[in-house]
Design brief:
Pdz3 Domain, 3 domains, four-stranded antiparallel β-sheet, 12 helices
């Protein structure tokens, strides 16, 4: 629990700071007077507040978001309450927000979103430079998990294990990453999979139905040679003398052609003695192993007992080192791909192709942040990059209380050569506030249902 809470504080604290710092720096460069830079909404906490120059820096009472309070001729009642009330400092007329050209104000409004995007790009680039490009050099199907196939992906059941995937929507695939990316990210209204046996499987899944696309990609599992990649210390396999690099060729006289065959034989024999035949350095060895009992969720959601011996598959992944320039390019591609998927998700929510029950709030973010933190710094940084892109995309929605809505106001001002009437902006802002509250209510209710097991 402590790790989850700390991870959530780090994720939201850093990303909100990055977003608001974008607005702050742009406003300062534009010569706009900034009253306060705050993490959190509402009045500042007195003992967590200090002033440097003309700007007050603070942490505020309501830990939801943050704000940069710029000098303005028009003090909106709603936003004023969220930003700690109306300021008392008198500001020269040429330093208020409205005194700047429309294009300058547009830059200031969009700079927070830009900073979130740059943060994600930098994070993805760093991970690419540190770890290189991870390649899974397999295009052959090892297993078809028909029981998890959504209705739109029923045609995948026709694919026989051992069949290689050649092309997806006319694009040649060379790795399993290409297979997954092709199924999930192709912008066409259907997914066409060309196979080595000459057949073609067509999945009529709309690109905005991202959940169905992801489930379809999970139906196909890559072929894995039954080579042991890791032997866990103290487990039955280690005690029996199994070693990393061993190829498992049979269990109790039944042949093993790929890793999934081994899993099925082990899982159906919990707590039973097994005779496992392995190939090692040109020799065949017979090892006597008694599996231990573990439990996994079954297809019906209930836990079921399975057998395990304490080994992990050798994946055969390769790592291709990248130069700094290549890593920056890889980071950019990762940012664009993640942004595209989030846009499709938002679009799918509005069109009904994605269920509103998938929307998550701070509780879900905290749970995922805690899980990613436990998995290591790389996973945690990648998670932060994804959340940063989420914040950027959601802030671009044309809702008045968000950056996207403020940009639309400025765009209208540029077109009609004068600001929209204050009354109209106040009404639209009220509608936007209601929409945000409803969205937050949906997110919190979904979070609570997940916690309670609904």
């Amino acid at each position: 629990m402590l790790v989850t809470i700390l991870a959530l504080i780090v994720v939201l604290g850093v990303l909100i700071f990055v977003h608001e710092a974008g607005h702050f720096v742009a406003a300062k460069l534009a010569g706009i007077y900034v009253h306060r830079f705050s993490l959190g909404l509402g009045p500042p906490i007195p003992w967590l507040t200090f002033r440097r120059g003309e700007t007050e820096y603070s942490i505020s009472w309501l830990p939801l978001g943050g704000y940069v309070k710029m000098a303005s001729r028009e003090e909106d009642i709603g936003s004023s309450a969220l930003e700690g009330g109306a300021p008392s400092t008198q500001v020269p007329s040429d330093r208020v927000f409205e005194s700047k050209p429309v294009w300058v104000r547009m830059v200031v409004i969009l700079s927070g979103v830009a900073m979130n995007g740059l943060f994600a790009w930098a994070a993805f680039a760093f991970l690419a430079y540190k770890n290189g490009r991870q390649i899974d050099p397999v295009t052959t199907v090892g297993r078809v998990m028909a029981d998890v196939a959504p209705p739109e992906a029923a045609a995948l059941k026709q694919i026989r294990p051992g069949t290689a995937i050649i092309r997806i929507n006319r694009d040649t695939v060379r790795t399993w990453d290409d297979v997954v990316s092709g199924m999930v990210n192709t912008p066409e209204s259907e997914v066409r999979i060309e196979l080595s046996d000459g057949s073609t499987v067509v999945l009529p899944i709309h690109p905005d139905a991202l959940e169905e696309r992801l489930k379809a990609a999970q139906v196909l599992q890559p072929f894995r040679v039954p080579v042991v990649g890791q032997v866990l210390a103290g487990k039955p396999a280690a005690k029996a003398g199994m070693e990393e690099g061993d190829t498992i060729v049979g269990v109790n006289g039944k042949p093993v052609q790929q890793w999934y065959d081994l899993l099925e034989l082990l899982q159906s024999s919990p707590g039973q003695p097994l005779e496992i035949e392995v190939a090692r350095a040109g020799r065949r060895l017979s090892l006597n192993v008694t599996s231990y009992v573990d439990s996994i969720p079954g297809p019906d959601g209930k836990t079921q007992a399975v057998g395990r011996i304490g080994v992990a598959v050798g994946t055969g992944f390769t790592s291709e080192p990248l130069t700094l320039g290549e890593a920056i390019g890889e980071g950019g591609r990762g940012t664009v791909m993640a942004s595209t998927q989030i846009v499709r998700t938002v679009r799918g929510l509005f069109t009904g192709r994605i269920s509103g029950s998938t929307v998550g709030g701070p509780i879900l973010i905290g749970q995922l942040a805690g899980e990613s933190a436990r998995m290591g710094l790389d996973t945690f940084l990648g998670f932060m990059a994804l959340i940063s892109i989420n914040l950027a995309i959601l802030n671009l929605l044309p809702i008045p209380v968000l950056d996207g809505g403020q940009f639309v106001f400025l765009l209208a001002e540029a077109v009609i050569r004068r600001p929209l009437p204050m009354k109209l902006r106040e009404r639209l802002t009220t509608v936007g506030m209601v929409l945000i509250i409803l969205l937050m209510g949906l997110a919190f209710s979904n979070d609570i249902r997940r916690v309670l097991g609904g």
